[in-house]
Amino acid sequence: MKINLAVLFGGKSVEHEVSVISAVQAMASMNKEKYNIIPVYMTKGNEFYTGEKLFDINSFKDIPALLKECTECVFVRSEGKVQLIRQKMKKFGSNLISDIDVAFPIVHGTNVEDGALQGYLHTLDLPYVGCDVLASAVGMDKFVMKILLKDAGFPVLDCCRFASFDLDKMDDMIKQVEAKFPYPVIVKPINLGSSVGISKASDRDGLIKSIEEAFEFADRILVEPAVVQLKEINCSVVGDSESAEASVCEEPVQQDEILSYKDKYVGGGKSGGSKGMATLKRKIPAEITPEQEEFVRKTAVDAFRYLGCNGVTRIDFMLDKATDKIYINEINTIPGSLAFYLWEPKGVKYTELLERMIQLALKRHRQGEKISYTFETNILSMGGSFGAKGSKS
Amino acid sequence: MNLVLWCIYAAVTLFAIIFSGLREFHMLQLNGYKTPEHSWWMKKNIKRYIPLIIFLVIQLMLLPLERVLTWDCEKHVLNTSKLRLAYGITGFLTAANIGIAIANKPGKKFKKPLVYTARVKRMLVTFFILIALIFTGAFVCADRVDYKGAWRFTNVLPFVFTGAALYLTPILVPLSNLINKPIEKSVQRWYINDAKRILREMPSLHKIGITGSYGKTSMKFYLSELLGSQYETLKTPESFNTPMGVTITVRRDLKPTHEYFICEMGARRVHEIKELCDIANPHDGIITSVGPQHLETFGSIDNVLNTKFELADAVQAAGGKIYLNGDNELIRKKAPQYKNRILYGLQEGNDYRASDISVSDRGTEFTVTTPGGESFRYSMKLLGEHNVQNVLGAIAYCHGLGISLEKLALPVKRIAAVPHRLQLLDKGGNMTFIDDAYNSNPSGCRAALNVLGLFDACRILVTPGMVELGAKQEELNYEFGQEAAKACDYIVLVGKNQTVPIYNGIKDAGYNMDQVFVADSLSEALTKVQSYQTSKKKIVLLENDLPDNY
Q1: What is the DSSP letter of A266?
Q2: B363: which strand partners?
Q3: How many C-beta atoms surround the C-beta of residue B269 within 10 A?
Q4: pLDDT of chain A along its 393 residues, tens only?
Q5: Contact assignment for A393 to B433 by CB distance below 8 Å
Q6: Is A80 within 8 Å of B253 when comparing Cβ atoms?
């Protein structure tokens, strides 16, 4: 019997296409001897589809045609297990597509990576790969993450947080920022990954423009001081709160001032570009001193365990070349291409990395089962008068 | 009599057959589909069937009217008084059958309603075939054609046949069960073979068999707690320990993600463990104890021993390890025959040993020493030596797999006690309870007193004594009193009359009778317990709980 593994990807997110690339890549590397892989594509409207065509990246060039060849489906919990069944039921015959033993969400961005999809899978009581609801949510909200990490003594940049309903009080916002930080500053949406809506402001006019632009993408934004002599360093961590391990460090090569969405996913290379994070220009390992590398890797593991992450994450750091200080910038709970390219230099094959992630998912689910959430008996079924017998022993 | 009348009668009767048939199937299901149990139950509830027997007799009274009626009709001479009688009886029976239908009409609330399992559906098919045969009989016996070639139904036999189908339903129901027996056997075979196929398709699944006269269910539970902390583990639920129980578990609950399968194996007869081993093919095994249980079906204690060791034979053939409770004398004697054995227990000479057992109001602590000389101190919520033995067995098995002793500390601590079985209840304050309310046998009482005796506290026993022990009840209670005198600082007996033997036992042991109190009710007993003045913490053993009728 093979383990039925549902790979969920896509979804209502600005990083929809990136997720498709990451997922198709990952599915190609999964152990087919052990797993029966069931791709579940979530459209931009969050409808679920499954089908053989979803294994081929070329099918995604024409989505409507692709969907016609796929089956719309839905997860249900029934008969003590999770089943994937046809959404449009046949009148005769079985509507069961497959039992599902484990889910593997490979999704990026708000609405999916932020704990929403994780909560859905948790409700189904289906073991799922990656961070749980809380760690996913914290990882997505850059402000909450900063507060938590700061409280535990991790190096993070200070920031101001603003909400879109205060847009008419722009002057107050500017005053607040200027009182706290010198220019230049960075403005970013609180909960979007992949550099969307992030911009740098060198003066007051620039700040106003940046804030307005950021509010196009999110209801809450934050402003933090810009590191002028910036070197970005990323490090991946695999494991769970009990034990975790750091990968090699990478240094993304900057083309724009900040690594923009275009750099990350569109302008990858000559070959047409849709190969995801793996083909982005970068230096591996990062050009940093051994001490700095040691610091980054240790801090990455500590932060990962502190936030209760699970599976593979990528933690992005900022090195201020002027002061040699290193800050945690953000945590990607489901990094593009699952950061496999940071593990291969360490001798961890992608197939092996994926296997480790699945085992971690089963472990978390198993440990969750050991804690009792329900009473064996239904208290309501006992009848009689409540309270009269309640305190016998 | 004519066809229209018969049709009405048949329709009414058919309804009554369906309703009372379903009721009978329900009862058969509650009796576990077992014919002896069901017939015993029918005898006990004979009142249910008396009306049916009466109606059966009444309809026989139609038979003498048969010829008269037929002859009269053919001659077009109406014997009105006899005809009236025939119509009268038929009318009465129609009303009676309506009554039966109403009395058995579905919709009544049951605690455990009839479940339409595949087996019940198959039996229903057989049942209705039988009914159809009888109705066909009614047709065959009908005085069929008159001079115009029309159906007449002028005789009474069709009525008698139809009625008999209803009045004999309580017999036809178990009969269809008997008829289906060979079918059920082959259905079971199919399920068992299917379970075997599923297990074959998961070659990496590691299977563990657990058997023993006592403690196998506890062992299964503890092992799944410990093993489940590290691996995906499935255990047979509750007391599913028969071939069908294992089959159901495999077909229903086994998932491809599972890594370990713990299979409880029960036996009442020789070779039943071998039969289970042929299904589950365990890699390793654990035998928790061998004792005089189910002797009436086993025949001798040697048969019990050899049957339990069928697991060891199977495991030896598979090249696995057999974990044995080395404290059990019978097991220890047989153990040397098995090279792959690992003994666990509290006594010297075991490979895995538990020692330095201490109890407190937080539970039990004990030190486990491995064959390699490693040792680790565990603490758990459970009480009682047998629990230390069983948890030790589970620890030994996990350690044998390569799980470190330290890693097992948390899962051991997390094992929960079975409610009302030596369950430690710390309600805060100055009192801790040991709830052993579900226990009522002498050896269990002795074990509970042993646990109580280990506490360094003010030890109080609250008990109504043991009941339903037959001829030896008085003697056993007397002994219980004598032993209680050794282990307790205070003794509170609940109920004046049935605790006299215990009282005498305590007195004859030379106990200070000022420290004994006889209460009328449990609440009075607990009030008394609360009133005792002591500088130490109180530990209260609630031994046995009697129903309201004592």
Answers
A1: I
A2: B360
A3: 13
A4: 899 999 999 999 888 999 999 999 999 999 999 999 999 999 999 999 999 999 999 999 999 999 999 999 999 999 889 999 999 999 888 999 999 999 999 999 888 999 999 999 999 999 999 999 999 999 999 999 999 999 999 999 999 999 989 888 999 999 999 999 999 999 999 886 656 788 999 999 999 999 999 998 889 999 999 999 999 999 999 999 999 999 999 998 865 555 555 555 554 444 444 455 655 678 889 999 999 999 999 999 999 999 999 999 999 999 999 999 999 999 999 999 999 999 999 999 999 999 999 999 999 999 887 776 555 555 555 444 444 444 444
A5: yes
A6: yes
CATH pick for B202-414 out of 3.30.360.10, 3.30.70.120, 3.40.1190.10, 3.40.50.2000: 3.40.1190.10
Residues sharing a CB contact under 8 Å with residue B80, sequence separation 6 or more, in sequence order? none
Residue range A160-225, CATH number:
3.30.1490.20
Strands (E), chain A: 3-10, 35-42, 48-50, 71-78, 81-86, 96-100, 102-106, 160-163, 185-189, 199-201, 220-225, 230-239, 244-252, 282-283, 311-320, 325-332
Q: What does CATH list as the number for A3-128?
A: 3.40.50.20
Q: Out of B233, B255, B414, whose CB is closest to A101?
A: B255
> Is A148 touching B (CB cutoff 8 A)?
no
How do the domains of chain B map onto residue ranges?
A: 3-183, 202-414, 423-543
- Contact state of A127 with B437 under an 8 Å Cβ cutoff: no
Q: Does domain B423-543 have CATH number 3.90.190.20?
A: yes
Number of CB atoms found within 10 A of residue B446's CB? 15
B437 and A4 in contact by Cβ < 8 A? no
Write down the residue that tokens 């069961």 correspond to.
A96
Could you tell me if B502 and B481 are in contact, meaning their C-beta atoms sit under 8 angstroms apart? yes
Tokens of A211: 């804030």
ipTM of model: 0.74
Distance CA A38, CA B133 (A): 52
Of the residues B249, B257, B431, the best mutation for testing chain A's interface (the one with the most A CB atoms within 10 Å of its CB) is B257
CB burial readout A211-229, b (16+ within 10 A) else e: bebbbebbebbbbbbbbee
